[in-house]
Amino acid sequence: GTRVLLASRPTGRPTAENFRIEPMPIPTPAEGQVLLRVLFLSLDPYMRGRMDDRKSYAAPNPLGAVMEGGTVAEVVESRHPDYAAGEVVLSYSGWQTHALSDGKDLRKLDPAAAPLSTALGVLGMPGFTAWSGLRNIGQPKPGETLVVAAASGPVGSAVGQIARIHGARAVGVAGGPEKCRFVRDELGFEACLDHRAPDFAEQLRAACPDGVDVYFENVGGAVWDAVFPLLNTFARVPVCGLVSQYNGATPGNTDRLPGMMREVLSRSLLIRGFIQREFAAQQPEFRTEMAGWIKDGRVRYREDIVDGLEHAPEAFIGLLEGRNFGKLVVRVG
Ligand code: NDP
User: Fold this and answer.
1) Hey, which of 218, 247, 304 would you mutate to test ligand 1's pocket, going by the most ligand atoms within 8 Å of its Cβ?
2) Is the CB of 149 under 6 A from ligand 1?
3) In a domain, 321, yes or no
């Protein structure tokens, strides 16, 4: 087998040297355990935070340990009463070809119900993040305007499409004309703007003539700067992620906080951070609803599948810079 370890902690942008790819022996399951062979590994922006040694909602990835991550895996050997060889499960096996599990972190998947990789994307954690952030915080209403960035990715693409199902106008923000075309023409957003365009803020204003009622915050930075003046009274801002800041924040912003708070008050804004796990009890409802929308063609998704675990580090580094186009997944097995 093969595994990828966290070799050192990055300062700023991660590099290949922060990872170590090495061979590993195939482990043997003890009584009560299963041996898993990883089929797909999910690469997600949150992994950048785990590479740092800093207090956060989750503990840092230990140095010298396997990189953590969500996976789809096949049971190859079982000494657990609830699992049989050949079954496919959602697991948290990390960046490695094989892993042991005691079954507590596993959920069985039906390979006939949906492509297995979707359990890491539209039907998995990112899809649930979109769904739960809107259900509990954003609450788009008919005729309202919603803005979301990283709009071609798994979270943003689901956010805009769900908002449209609820009757809102979805305005996307993405990097480059190809992604913007996809978001408009394939996903059906009313508009999609390139955040790298020099006149991005003016374009956004023109695309939101009635202001912004829901801003689903995925990126922070310059996009937030452009959206903030457009927020309507009673606007809701689910704060989901700040990917533009993950490789190091732009310094010197703190003096704008008092002005921002004045606006939060005068416009009765709701700015509410969340980690999807908070809403975990709603996952069964999400899976039923989302599976129905995919079947009806009301929600579409795009995957960016990279072959081979040895390519995971470069693919992950690219994810933080927008080099992925769709949900980034590594085909491991
Ligand atoms: P994506 O696959 O969309 O990848 C991240 C995207 O961010 C890139 O493709 C890029 O798209 C965009 N991006 C990167 N840098 C910038 C920048 N400086 N300005 C604007 N956009 C940028 O990721 P996900 O859909 O998996 O995740 C989206 C967000 O949701 C992330 O912030 C993530 O951390 C967060 N998240 C939060 C969860 C929670 O529980 N709170 C759970 C899951 C995800 P482009 O080329 O279009 O700019």
Assistant:
1) 218
2) yes
3) yes
| Closest atom of ligand 1 to CA, residue 179 | 47
Q: Residue 311: which domain range?
A: 2-120+303-331
Q: How far is the CA of 317 from the centre of ligand 1 (A)?
A: 13
pLDDT score for 253 = 57
| Coil, strand or helix at 176 | coil
Helices (H), 217-266: 221-227, 257-266
Q: How far away, in angstroms, is 153 Cα from ligand 1 center?
A: 7
Of the candidates 90, 71, 86, the residue with the CA atom closest to the CA atom of residue 3: 71
Does residue 87 sit in the same domain as residue 190?
no
Please check whether residue 170 is in contact with residue 130, taking contact to mean a CB–CB distance below 8 angstroms. no
Q: Say how many Å lie between the first and final Cα of the chain, rounded.
A: 10
For the chain, the domain total comes to 2
Q: Check if 121 has its Cβ closer than 6 Å to any atom of ligand 1.
A: no
The answer, yes or no, to whether any atom of ligand 1 lies below 6 A from the CB of 119, is no
Kindly tell me the burial class for residue 213, based on how many C-beta atoms sit within 10 Å of its own C-beta (0-12, 13-18, 19 or more): buried
Listed in sequence order, the residues at least 6 apart from 322 whose beta carbon sits closer than 8 Å to its beta carbon are 150, 175, 176
Establish whether residue 200 lines the binding site of ligand 1, counting it when its CB lies within 6 angstroms of any ligand atom.
no
Reported pTM? 0.97
Provide CB contacts within 8 A for 260, sequence distance 6+.
Answer: 228
ipTM: 0.99
Alpha-carbon gap, residue 302 to 291, rounded angstroms: 15
Mean model confidence pLDDT for the chain: 96
